[in-house]
Amino acid sequence: MEKPGKVKDIHIEDARIGFRNFAGAEKPFNPPGKRNFCVFLETDLAIILEEDGWNVRWLTPRDVDEDKQGYLQVAVAFENFPPKIKMYSSRGETVLDEESVSLLDWAEIDEIDLVIRPYSWILHEGTKNEKRGIKAYIKNMYVKIKEDEFEKKWANAPLDDPLND
Fold first, then answer.
1. Average pLDDT estimate for 35-50
2. What is the mean pLDDT of residues 91-113?
3. How far apart are CA 72 and CA 112, in angstroms?
4. Rounded to whole angstroms, how far apart are CA atoms 83 and 14?
5. Is the per-residue pLDDT at 5 higher than 50?
6. In the predicted model, what is the mean pLDDT of residues 63-84?
7. For the chain, how big is the Rg over CA atoms in Å?
8. Which terminus of the chain has a lower count of CB atoms within 10 Å, N or C?
9. For 136-163, how does the pLDDT look when each residue is reduced to its tens digit (9 = 90+)?
10. By C-alpha distance, which of 49, 21, 12 is closest to 142?
């Protein structure tokens, strides 16, 4: 494994994500307030990241003819290094922050490009029980929302102005 600080960001175009919890809702395997999602990885990339120390997990295939699916859980944290998360639709660009990022939990997503930043950690350094790893944090995310024909039709409709009634 590389020494802390030497691991580079991961750039993924047209990413596939799942297990979304941008709101940080409490779930059986998630404490309240921990925002995260998983990004599914191509097998070659998953193997490389796993060898480098990233916490890659593998989904067991449903069909015996399928390969295992590698994925990485990505933390969404706004404390120390707030991520840049932008959502795009026919209405334009919307910057998502800590209050609004939960919109992505239920959004129908057409396309995602993202940058994941590593955080190298060491526990019990220099002892027999030493453990190392790399935790994934979202750095930048660009999300295009899937819209139907009516959403596009009404996206730029004028809003009623209560002062003119």
1. 96
2. 96
3. 15
4. 18
5. no
6. 94
7. 19
8. C
9. 999 999 999 999 888 888 877 776 665 5
10. 12
Q: What is the DSSP letter of 159?
A: P
Distance (Å, whole) CA 135 – CA 118: 6
92: left (phi over 0), alpha (psi -120 to 50) or beta: left
- SS3 category, 48: helix
Residue 143's CB: how many other CB atoms inside 10 A?
A: 22
With CA atoms as reference, report the closest residue to 72 among 103, 43, 93.
43
- Report the chain's mean pLDDT, rounded to a whole number: 90
Report the pLDDT value the prediction gives residue 125, as an integer from 0 to 100: 86
Angle (CA) 17-1-78 rounded to 5° is 45
Q: Where are the beta strands (DSSP E) in 15-91?
A: 16-21, 36-41, 56-59, 69-75, 84-89
CATH 3.30.1300 fits 10-149, yes or no: no
Distance CA 26, CA 165 (A): 45
